[in-house]
Every structure is written in C-alpha cells, then in structure tokens.
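User: Sorry, what's this?
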Amino acid sequence: MNHAKNVRRLAAALAVPVLLLTASACGSDDGGGKVSVEGKFGEKPTVSVPKGAKPADEPVVKALSEGRGEKVEKGSFIRIDYAVYSMKDGRELINSWNPQMPPGKPAGGARPQEVLQVGQQGQQVPAKVGEALAGQRAGSRVLLEGTVKSLVAEAANPRSGFAPGDGLVWVVDVLGARKVDAKSEAKGEQAAPEQGMPVVKAPSQKPAEITVPKDEKPPADLKEQVLIKGSGPEVKAGEGLIAQYTGVKWEDGAKFDSSWDHAGATAFQIGTGSVVQGWDKGLVGKHVGDRVLLVIPPKLGYGNQEGSELQKNTLVFVVDILGTV
C-alpha cells in the first residue's frame, strides 16, 4: 500500500527443533575465520564475527536449521526476522527482535517484522537479501555473508560509513512463505451496502469503483462491512496480510491508490502499526477470502502525519484478503 506507514510463529512442525545451534559459513579464502551463530529459530541470535573476517565477492548462503514449510521462490511473499552485523568490527547494525514500537502501540503482543515479496524492496530489507533466500523453506534460520554491493546496493550511502566492498552478516529467520497469483481476488456474491455506507462495484481484475453517499457527513469512527464472506483462516495480529485494495477519499470520491494500478497483490504486516490504524483495527479478525469495506476517519488514518496529502481526509478502502504469511 503506497500510502501505508513506512506474530504468530509458524507451527512447531514447520521448524527443526534446535536447542542450541552453533554454525558457520565460509568467507573468502583469505578471511580471518568463520562467523558463529548461537540460538534457536525464532529467538534473537548471538553472533560472533572473528577479527579479520572478509566477505566473498558473491553472497554465501547457508541454512543453519532447515524448516519444513513452503519453499521461498521468486515472487513469494515472506515474513522474516533478521539481524545484521558489520564484518569490520562485529557490531550489530539492526535487528527486528528489538524493534522501536510505533507510537500508541501497547507493549506485548505481536511486534513488527518484515513482510516483503521476493524480488521487491522491503520497508527495511533490500531486494537482494530476499532474492538470496530463494530455495529456503519457511521455518529455516539462514546465514548470509556478502559485501554491501552484493547484498544491499551497487553504491553505499556515503553517510553510512560503509564502502561497497565492506562485509555484512545477516541472520534471517524465515517465519512464513506463500506464493499468490498477482491477479487473485475475492470470489462470491457481494452483499448490498449497509445504510450510510459507500456503494461498491468491483469489476474483475480492476480497481473497485466506490461511490460515496451524497450529502452524507463522514463518520467520526471506524465503519466496516464484510461484502464477501470468505471461508479461510482468521487473520491474526502479526501475520503478513496478502491483499488487493483500492482507496478513495470520502470528500470527493477520488481514487488515491490501488494495488491493481501497480503489480497486483501486495502484502503488509497487520496488527503491529505497520499500516494505518484503521487497517489494523478493521482487518485483524477477518478471514482469508473476505472482501472488506472500511471507512477510516483521519484519527485512524493519516491525521497525525503532518504534511501528508491525506492528513485531513476520511479514507474509504475495499480490501480483498487473499492470504496470510
């Protein structure tokens, strides 16, 4: 969702039980030793980078523990935890196990993780890292070693203090993976709108046509209606939500975004503050296969984002829930 703000763990059966894992991956032949990783899948790892370690020119990928879930492929949607370390001095650069929680997000419960499509840039994770995970299975812990150039970008941001040839170590837990047809949509008979709700026409594989009631004041609170009832699993906070969506402004009915205008199906983590509050409140608890109509007041949309073009608007979304990851 272009205008979105920039966990349920897998069942135990998906992961190989590892009580204490120490594993290594090869660096270049002239490196100063091997990286060691300790810890169980699903928990923050303890990583030791030996002094003098040097990266190979191409990424080195090693499964530290192998899961039994769906295989990651190009185009798969994945949900991951990760930690990143510098080979120069072994310091931790970032990790998702200790995230900075969004304002207003209560302590406990699901926490932010990365949800991305393999081959596409994530909010925090480069596309090259997702591509390096192809062939791994959900439930796996994976060690990646490589240069800034091979894992992040051809040219490093000068302010980062890193050169293209500097080494990075990534430890990635693949929590879930799912491949969905980019043109998928909710199927079934659509319910008539409730009193005061917008009218929705949803032509196949095109943005929904949403007509806002004339001369109606926008609601002060979140309004929601399931237009098509699916039969899939319930959406839980912390999962990656795979969806099609169209959004318009209540005030003039103008469309401001739609997944159909981009590459089709897309995914976001739900219930952790990664998207607007109206999505978190309105979509957690719904079911895969649902088509949901949401009317979101500014206080649950972009009302607290100074400078946003949608800061003062009530937003109307039609969301098809295609799956979770």
Observations:
- The chain has three helices and 16 strands.
- Confidence is low (pLDDT under 50) at residues 2-32.
